[in-house]
Design a protein that fits this description.
The chain has 212 residues and is an all-alpha fold. It has helices at 2-26, 36-65, 75-80, 92-122, 126-153, 160-180. Helix 2 packs antiparallel against helix 4, helix 2 runs antiparallel to helix 6 (160-180) and helix 5 packs antiparallel against helix 6 (160-180). The protein is elongated.
Length: 212
């Protein structure tokens, strides 16, 4: 009888333990932000947009520094940005390189945001979903500015002032989208990567002393 009672107690303990395991699996998630993958994709989206903003700034500074070319250009001069008088203008090749890089960064951001949304929806994290909606609204404005910049850069004779103005609008839109990511994932540390630690100062040597 004692052995039967022990078996029964052991069986009950096993059932209780299994129930506890089931409850742990069925427990609601702590939120999408508890997922390392969610943070990765959110941070990667911000990085992609930050890269796009750098390209926009590079193009703006370039178009501000280069005089607009006037008149109609032939194929050879259009390639290197020379106008009819031979004066260097805004290069269509440089402009296209920048626009392509910007659009690539925005596309990568959209891809990362889509994955982050799937994580947020799976975790039923409504706060994260709401922030993602805000970011996507900013990205939509970014894409509108991208289209306007691309139109500026598709002209045979690129207007440097107009292109610079488009770049400024694009940088502002990208800045809003990037800032909105701070509600989604914590910003990266301000310290620079790969910084070498400061070397300890050598102790002062007495006057007249010499190194061995």
């Amino acid at each position: 009888m004692a052995s039967n009672a022990g078996v029964a107690i052991g069986f009950v303990a096993l059932v209780v333990g299994l129930c506890g395991v089931g409850e742990s699996f069925a427990a609601p998630s702590a939120g999408a932000k508890a997922s390392g993958q969610f943070n990765f994709y959110g941070s990667s989206s911000r990085s992609a947009l930050s890269g796009a903003r750098e390209y926009a700034g590079n193009l703006r500074r370039y178009t501000e520094a280069v005089p607009s070319s006037g008149g109609t250009m032939d194929a050879g001069r259009a390639a290197d940005g020379r106008g009819a008088g031979g004066m260097m203008g805004v290069s269509p090749i440089v402009s296209k390189e920048a626009v392509d890089a910007i659009e690539h960064g925005v596309a990568k951001s959209e891809k990362y945001l889509a994955v982050a949304r799937r994580h947020a929806e799976a975790a039923a994290d409504q706060d994260a979903v709401a922030v993602l909606d805000q970011i996507n609204a900013h990205v939509a404005e970014v894409k509108k500015c991208c289209r306007e910049l691309a139109e500026c850069c598709e002209m045979d004779a690129i207007d440097g002032k107009r292109s610079a103005a488009c770049c400024k609008e694009l940088e502002a839109a990208l800045g809003k989208a990037i800032a909105a990511h701070d509600k989604l994932v914590p910003p990266a540390p301000a310290a620079g990567h790969g910084a070498m630690p400061a070397m300890p100062a050598s102790p002062a040597m007495p006057a007249g002393a010499h190194h061995p």
